[in-house]
Amino acid sequence: MIARLVNDPEEAESLMQETFLQAFQRLDTFRREAKFTTWLYAIGINLARAQRRKLQRMVPLSDEDVERLQPTFSYGMFQESPVAWDPHKLAVRKERHTLVHDAIRKLPEDYREVLTLRDIEEYGTEEVAKMLGISSGAVRVRLHRARQALKKLLDTHFV
Amino acid sequence: MKRILQILLKFMGRPTCEEVNRFLAEYVEGTLPDDVRVKFDRHLSHCKCCGPFLDDYRSTIKFANSSQDIAIPEKLADSTIEFLRSHLKDA
């Protein structure tokens, strides 16, 4: 998970060690109401966030950008009819892999975390909520917006 | 036209595209109550906008899932195990 969040093997190595070290030092603060792995992930996520803030190598999209990537509605109907992706363009698997990977990296941190934990790591909504310290409702809303933003970013390549 | 359609859908107790979109994550997750899911199914099978949108929304999830199947580098795994061993020994 850390390797996915920071995208740099050396940084991931250092963060993974720091995560274990912090977990070991703070073992007495672990409450058994959460799973041990959830607690460990929460420590790792916080360290990855702090590290990313420090480095800020790539300027991700802002929350306003994510808002602009959401579909818009008028009187409850789509303002613009969505154009379906072209199956032929989707078929080029190798290129698709890179495009999707790069688009995920563009998402703001909050959105990338939720998408990584839910759609890539496949953790349940409740568990992700515990890891991130937010409500399940907030996880669902953030996830939906992240997916729609990602879909819109990919539209330019796949339509 | 859209305004009339919206009133009509409301009158018939059917969801609009916007309402379907708002709960799309729950629909995909399968956590919507049965009666709501049936209404969504009906809307999605007929709507020229929401049907294709849902297909691509699902593809987005699938592609995200398969885009990052990166293996932990061997060096990273080795050094982490080594790190844990040395610290557990010291404890």
Give an overview of the whole structure.
The complex is a heterodimer of chains A (159) and B (91). Chain A has 159 residues and is mostly helical. Chain A folds into two domains: 1-57, Orthogonal Bundle (Rna Polymerase Sigma Factor, Chain: A); 60-159, Orthogonal Bundle (Arc Repressor Mutant, subunit A). Chain A is 69% helix and 3% strand. Chain A has helices spanning 2-6, 9-25, 36-55, 63-68, 87-90, 93-106, 109-120, 125-132, 136-158, and strands at residues 73-74, 77-78. In chain A, α3 packs across α8 (125-132) and α8 crosses α9. The longest helix of chain A is centred in the last third of the chain and has 23 residues, at 136-158. The mean pLDDT of chain A is 87. By secondary structure, chain B is mainly alpha-helical. Chain B has one domain (2-68). Chain B has six helices and no strands. Chain B has helices at residues 2-11, 17-22, 24-29, 34-46, 50-67, 74-90. The termini of chain B are far apart. The chains are: A mainly alpha (159), B mainly alpha (91). The A-B interface holds A 3-4, 9, 12-13, 16-17, 20-21, 24, 71, 73-78, 81-85, 90, 96-97, 100-101, 104, 115-116, 119-120, 122, 125, 140-141, 143-144, 147-148, 150-151, 154, 158 and B 2-3, 5-6, 9, 16-19, 21, 24-26, 29, 48-50, 52-53, 55-57, 59-61, 63-68, 70, 72-73, 75-76, 79-80, 83-84, 87, 91.
